[in-house]
Amino acid sequence: QVHLVESGGGSVQAGGSLTLSCTASGEAFDNYNMGWYRQAPGKERDGIACISWNGESTYYAESVQGRFSISRDNTRNTLTLQMDSLRLEDTAMYYCVADTSLWWFNDRAPDYWGQGTQVTVSS
Fold first, then answer.
1. 30: alpha, beta or left, given left = phi > 0 and alpha = psi -120 to 50?
2. b/e map of 7-24 (b: 16 or more CB within 10 Å)?
């Protein structure tokens, strides 16, 4: 099992940047393929970025491709999402997720979720 705690959310103006972090504890961090989901009010949760256990492969939703960057540090058990050129539609609760499978290609949601951190983008 792994426990995930997100940080770094907040309010930012459109066009600005934010960096989200996720710290993992429990089982070995590099057992897990990690990533981020988000959920906007009234909408479904969507996976937006995924990184393989060794950091060699990354995947992005089209909505964030070229603006967001996911990375991980397996020596510090941390996951990071750098968000640039933020838009109003990026406003959502952002969740750190983990799964031993490469969940980006699964039909099911990842096994482990953090509690979420709110990102609000204003004009």
1. alpha
2. ebbeebeeeeebebbbbb
How far is the C-alpha of 85 from the C-alpha of 93, rounded, in Å? 18
The token pair at 37 is 């989901």
Residue found by looking up tokens 């039909």 in the block: 107
Residue pointed to by tokens 């990026």: 90
- From first to last of the 123 residues of the chain, give the pLDDT tens digit: 999 999 999 999 999 999 999 999 998 999 999 999 999 999 999 999 999 999 999 999 999 999 999 999 999 999 999 999 999 999 999 999 999 998 888 888 999 999 999 999 999
In the three-class reduction of DSSP (H, G, I as helix; E, B as strand; rest coil), residue 31 is classed as helix
DSSP states of 39-105 as a string?
E-TTS--EEEEEE-TTS--EEE-TTTTTTEEEEEETTTTEEEEEE-S--GGG-EEEEEEEESS-GGG
